[in-house]
Amino acid sequence: MNIRNFRQSEYNVNEIFLNRWSPRAMSGEEIDEKTLFQLFEAARWAPSSNNNQPWRFIYARRNTSHWEAFFNLLEEGNKNWADNAAALIVVISKPRSTTTSMRARIPTMPAPRGKTSPCRARF
């Protein structure tokens, strides 16, 4: 299957965007905590408004005591591909700047509504 047969851009964009594919298939391979923390450390240093880095990460590695709680937050359709993930990660952010008490200028995504909303999860 050629993914380009399904993607036609309205404007001239780099081919890398049109040829991108998100397989959503996990190998089932474990990820060790050191590697996971290296990824979190890289994310921690990403640029942010006023250098606040307002994000925090909550995670569960497969075959740990927290896995089931995180896994059960997923919609049924996402459970199919996430079942073999090495870790499930929730990204949260602080709405206020730590240095000015002003509302932080961070992009946000709407949280899913209903029982699967991470905002309603209790741990």
Task: Summarize the helices and strands and which ones pair or pack.
Blueprint: H1 15-18, H2 33-44, E1 55-61, H3 67-71, H4 76-82, E2 87-93
Give a structural overview:
With 123 residues, this protein is α+β, with helices and mostly antiparallel strands. It has a domain at 28-108: 3-Layer(aba) Sandwich (NADH Oxidase), CATH 3.40.109. It has helices spanning 15-18, 33-44, 67-71, 76-82, and strands at 55-61, 87-93. A two-stranded antiparallel sheet has the order 1-2. The termini are far apart.
Principal-axis shape:
extended
User: Fraction of residues in helices?
Assistant: 10-25%
- Percentage of residues in DSSP E strands: 5-15%
Total helical segments: 4
Fill in the keyword field for this structure.
single chain; 123 residues; alpha+beta; NADH Oxidase; two-stranded antiparallel ribbon; 11% strand; disordered C terminus
Quick recap of the structure?
This protein is of the alpha+beta class. The chain has helices at 15-18, 33-44, 67-71, 76-82; strands at 55-61, 87-93. It has a two-stranded antiparallel sheet with strand order 1-2.
